[in-house]
Amino acid sequence: MKNNYIPQKIGIFVWRTLRGRIPVRVELDRRGIDLDSILCPMCNDYIETVEHAIISCKVAKDIWKAIYNWWGSNPPDNASLSNHFSGSGRDNLPGGNKKIWQAVEWVSGYFIWKKRNQKIFRNDSWASSKVVSEIQVKTFEWITNRSRRKSLEWIQWLTNPINLGSPRTNNREPG
Ligand SMILES: [Zn+2]
Question: How many whole angstroms from 98 Cα to the centroid of ligand 1?
Fold first, then answer.
């Protein structure tokens, strides 16, 4: 899994997630690790599978919804992990923006998992809005540093990420 707009560790996280290889409680239990509970630590309502932690938990759903809304759409119904991480359904994005959208999706999954770990290991409950801003800040920082979009402006990133134009026209004076 490669997307050179974002750090490699995030590609590795996505790769592991798609193979069910992140340490959710049901997997730890399967490996014989003795846990007090195999319920999701975010909602305490469902067994924590990979799919649940990253996608179907209400906490994850709220974050995905905010991220999709930021990009002018809604999350697809019953999207699978691979739907979320493949940029599917967004083939009509202009220019090279599909790769940017994919980067946003990967970083979102990564931060949903990070929020979960903050809660478990540091007993620190990040608000979902804080996670969403963190995703926006980090993707902006990474994409402006790693792609040719050095001139991308923060306000444009926040308000209209789907119409960034091509990197070349980005540098040109308007008109
Ligand atoms: Zn949950």
Answer: 29
> Domain range spanning residue 118?
8-170
pTM for the whole structure = 0.90
Residue 160 lies in a domain: yes
Distance, in Å, from the CA atom of 160 to the CA atom of 77, rounded to the nearest integer, reads 24
pLDDT tens for 24-53 read 999 999 999 999 999 999 999 999 999 999
Compute the average pLDDT of residues 147-174: 75
Q: How many domains does the chain have?
A: 1
Convert the pLDDT of each residue in 117-154 to its tens digit: 999 999 888 899 999 999 999 999 999 999 888 888 99
Residue 138 counted as domain residue: yes
In the reported structure, the alpha carbon of residue 12 is separated from the centroid of ligand 1 by a whole-number distance in angstroms of 23
Q: Quote the ligand 1 centre to 144 CA distance (angstroms).
A: 33
